[in-house]
Amino acid sequence: PLGAAMITFQATANSLLQLNSDPAFRGRVMALYVMVFLGSTPIGGPIVGWVAEQFGARTGLGLGGIATVMASAVLLWGLGRWHVGQLNRSHRPIARTGLQPE
Fold first, then answer.
1. Is residue 98 part of a domain?
2. What's the pTM?
3. Do 55 and 33 share a structural domain?
4. CA of 28: how far to CAs of 8, 17, 81, in Å?
């Protein structure tokens, strides 16, 4: 179940980023996302591994949970400041599907 949840999260996050990004900046947005999403593992992994080795697995998992809660709080605070709900979004369709008359 955890693997399926991770795949679903990754696919959803990728789709939302691409659909909500300005086409002129889509590549840059995705590059930054991949750098943060994949690039944080080699930094955080050894740190949490060292903590788990020194203080036990429970402490390592707790540290990861605390970091997640803190990052979520910072994100929610930032979203509140940026007034995301008031962004000007285009109402044009993203893609056309179906058959078009010739």
1. no
2. 0.52
3. no
4. 23, 11, 23
How confident is the model at residue 12, as a pLDDT?
92
Contacts of 41 by beta carbon, 8 Å cutoff, 6+ apart: none
Q: Are residues 29 and 59 in the same domain?
A: no
Encoded tokens for 24: 């002129």
Determine how many CB atoms are found less than 10 A away from the CB of residue 24.
7
Structural domain contains residue 62: yes
Residue 55 domain boundaries: 44-81
Least confident of 59-68, 73-82, 87-96: 87-96
- pLDDT value at 33 more than 60: yes
Burial class (CB in 10 A: 0-12, 13-18, 19+), 74: exposed
Examine residue 50 and state whether it is found in any structural domain, yes or no.
yes
